[in-house]
Amino acid sequence: MPAPEPADPGTTREWPGASNALGSEPSAYLRQHAHNPVHWRPFGDEAFAFAAARDVPVFLSIGYAACHWCHVMAHESFEDQDTADYLNARFVAIKVDREERPDVDSIYMAATQAISGEGGWPMSVFLTPEGLAFHAGTYFPPTAQPGRPSFRQVLEAVHEAWLERRDAVEQNARMLAVGMANAQLASAVFLDRPPESLDTSLLSEAVRLLARSEDPDGGGFGGAPKFPPSAVLEFLIRHAAAPSDTSDAARDMAGRTLAAMARSALCDQLDGGFARYSVTADWSVPHFEKMLYDNAQLLRAYVHWVRLHGDWVLPAGEAASVASRVADWMLDSLGVGDPATPDGLASSLDADTVVDGVHHEGASYLWTPASLEAALGPGDGAAVARLMNVGPSGTVSELGSPLHPGRQLSGAESRLWNRVRPVLRAARSARPQPARDDKVVAGWNGLAIAALAEAGAVLDRPELVTAAESLAEYLVRVHWRPASKAGAQKPGTSKPGAGVLIRVSHDGVARGISGLLEDYAFCAEGFLALYAVTGRRRWYGLAEELISGACARFVVDGRLSDSVGESAQVFNAQGQHAGLDPFDNAAPSGAAAFSGVLLSYAAYSGSHEHRAMASNILSLLPPIAGRAPRVAGWLLATAQAAVAGPIEAAVSGPRDQKQRELHRALLASPSPGMVVAVQIGVAGEKAADDGALPEARAAEPEVPLLEARTAAADGSPQVYLCRGMVCDLPLGSVEELMRRLDTMTEAGG
To answer: Is the full-model pTM beyond 0.90?
Structure first.
């Protein structure tokens, strides 16, 4: 049985001949449905008011542009005239791009899981005109299958229940909303309370629990389908860097997973970049959509493995090669405009490729022995088929199999592969290519900024830092509304004086809802990482503004929430309580990401208030990590940094070769969550966007961690290593610095 995909006004462009209200929507996913005979409407008050006026339920369909099973259901049901006629006559149909509206996706995913016991995309939810869910599922086929009714059967049953048992339907919907409100209250985080101390034994226990669910042969955790455990990898790498009785186990688990994914079909062996997930436990048959958020996180994970300075399971050189190819793929395939200085990174590449008008999953990436021989000749073609597990029977479809060795290559095999790879890349580029979803999501670009900045520093590729700065400039120019330009906010959603981040832009114009907590947190994380690498105070200042804006927007009466006030219907579905999801999904939860940013900011600024706020969020950890550490990876990673201090490193003195060597050594350190500040002087600062001269930039206050951190008596650079703004004697050589860092890391917080 097919499975679903697991779990400001701007310019618009009308699609010619659109048959419903989606033709003027900028979302690529919504426009994919603009020609459906279903009378789709975008999510909003107008659509729900129309349902109330007609006194009919809402059919809410949620998906995303790269989703294979979304395409399947669209072709089978939404393009079928009879199905559309039945749906149009008895429901108001609303289509949502989950990547534009994660607030909508999150609450109705929770409702879908509560109602049906499953979750995924396409998501199919039936709502009252007030937005309360009363029936839900994921993919429904056009004809009934064992254990799954047809879509038409579902429509008929819901229509009959609405007409014949309306009171019971509405009562059940209200009870579900109350249940979800109670669940939200149970996981509430209050940031204005005295923080609880962190039980450090929780970290080692989480490693032991993860070991029980590890697949030691295939790498990763659990069985099929198998997703890249990006946040968990960050925790394991940080834990491995701090000696303990479980650090070796953490190191080995991380290495096995990173090695298995790098050598598998999940990783594009030709272009770089990782697919969303694998339908097999050995990573040999991927689902081919490629998402920015996955690749940004995995780029960082491989870079952090390189920083761990070890060749366990996965040699550091191989990890560096994988990281470089992922970075290049992100910029070349997702970069909007010039890949070297992109105006944002696009969201994804589609799982499907359209060949002669027909959707084929992964068609661009599949090979047969014959197609390899056609590209390489009989000798090399046969050798590569054996090397890359391409047999006569396609593992994905009749179109063939993806290339993957499934193991480490020998020297001779590597030489063969490096020789033929450019030829195969050229041959593949001549094929039809998957579509790209060009929307720019602020938070995901924040993740990419952090990853590219750190990759540039660790891999000695300054052009990646340049690209990260270009992405940051785009976010500031297009997505960020500083306090002076933000204008009036909705009542209760933001305090006066706070800037506003817009979540999505299309064609260089931001529009739609304000950012969620995750957007603010990911962007602030990116700016802090960029500051650590470049020393430009501008990035630190912007991170500070984002953190201030997040506190103003998402902390109401001391309580933290993921989103505030974007939709009355979502608010109703949550039982009229603001929600906070503490669990990591494809990316870290907003709460977990915010805890990490608050901890880093406190280390830079010396703010006890922000440190306490981070600790309050970490209070979510004990009940989650003790049961399900796989969904608490980023909270665990943040806790590991908190246990380590984190170490605060301030590099003072002139920007000469010695200072650069000290700075570079710090950026290459695996110390968990360490923050790095470096004095670069007026010459190293660029003029601000408002045209201020470098002299004006010099008047800006120094980052607190650098205050009173002076050069050596002879004027040469030196490094101060601190915890809680309390510093050891400064160090003037890389050798002394490395020894002291090792000692501090071993000693812990």
So the answer is: yes
| C-alpha angle 136-103-115 in degrees, rounded to nearest 5 | 20
- At CA 520, angle to CA 446 and CA 619, rounded to 5? 110
Q: What is the pLDDT of residue 447?
A: 98
What percent of the chain lies above the pLDDT cut of 70?
93
Q: What is the spatial distance between Cα 531 and Cα 533, in angstroms, rounded to a whole number? A: 5
Phi then psi for residue 138, to 5 deg, are -115, -115
User: What proportion of the chain, given as a percentage, has pLDDT over 90?
Assistant: 82
Phi-psi category of residue 373: left, alpha or beta, with phi > 0 → left and psi -120 to 50 → alpha: alpha
Buried b / exposed e over 91-106, threshold 16 CB at 10 Å, is: bbbbbbbbbbbbbbbb
Long-range CB contacts (< 8 A, 24+ apart) of 705-711?
705/603, 705/604, 705/605, 705/606, 705/648, 705/650, 705/675, 705/677, 706/650, 706/652, 706/677, 706/678, 706/679, 709/650, 709/652, 709/679, 710/652, 710/653, 711/652, 711/653, 711/654
Give the whole-angstrom CA distance, residue 13 versus residue 16.
9
Once rounded to an integer, what is the mean pLDDT over residues 397-408?
Answer: 95
User: Which stretches of 242-377 are DSSP H helices?
Assistant: 247-262, 292-307, 316-334, 369-376
**Region 176-201 average pLDDT:** 86
Residues pairing with 501 in the sheet: 480
| Pairing mode of beta strands 120-121, 5-6 | antiparallel
pLDDT tier, 700 (very low <50, low <70, confident <90, very high otherwise)? low
- C-beta atoms surrounding 318 within 10 Å: 20
Please tell me the number of Cα atoms within 13 Å of 257 on its side-chain side.
Answer: 28
Cα–Cα separations (whole angstroms), residue 310 to 306, 316, 317, 422, 747? 7, 6, 10, 30, 20
CA distances from 278 to 70, 354, 362 (A): 17, 21, 12
Q: Which 3 state secondary structure label does DSSP give 278?
A: strand
Q: Which residues pair with 517 in a beta bridge?
A: none
What span, in angstroms and rounded, lies between the C-alpha atoms of 731 and 717? 9
Of 43, 51, 69, which is closest to residue 123 (Cα–Cα)?
A: 69
Q: What is the dihedral of CA 152, 158, 164, 170, to 10 degrees?
A: -170
State which amino acid sits at residue 254: A
Confidence of residue 688 (pLDDT cuts 50, 70, 90): very low
616-633 pLDDT, tens digit per residue, is 999 999 999 889 999 999
* 449/58 Cα distance (integer angstroms): 39
Determine the Cα–Cα distance for residues 305 and 639; give it in Å rounded to an integer: 19
Dihedral angle, C-alpha 353, 354, 356, 359, nearest 10 °:
100
Query: pLDDT tens for residues 491-510?
Result: 344 444 689 999 999 999 99
Query: What pLDDT sits at residue 745?
Result: 85
* Per-residue tokens: 507: 């064609």
The β-bridge relationship of strands 648-652 and 559-560 is unpaired
Joined tokens for residue 463: 């052009």
Count Cβ atoms below 10 Å from residue 715 Cβ, excluding itself.
10
The string of DSSP codes covering 71-103 is HHHIIIIIT-HHHHHHHHHH-EEEEEETTT-HH
At 96, the pLDDT band (50, 70, 90 cuts) reads very high
Q: Encode 527-538: b = buried (16+ Cβ within 10 Å), e = exposed.
A: bbbbbbbbbbbb
Task: Classify residue 257 as exposed, middle or buried by CB count within 10 Å of its CB (0-12, 13-18, 19+).
Answer: buried
CB 190 within 8 A of CB 558: yes
| Structural contact between residues 67 and 352, judged by C-beta atoms closer than 8 angstroms | no
Cβ-based burial of 700 (10 A; exposed 0-12, middle 13-18, buried ≥19)? middle
Alpha carbons 372 and 383: distance in angstroms, whole number: 9
Place of tokens 């939709």: 567
Q: Which residues pair with 355 in a beta bridge?
A: 358
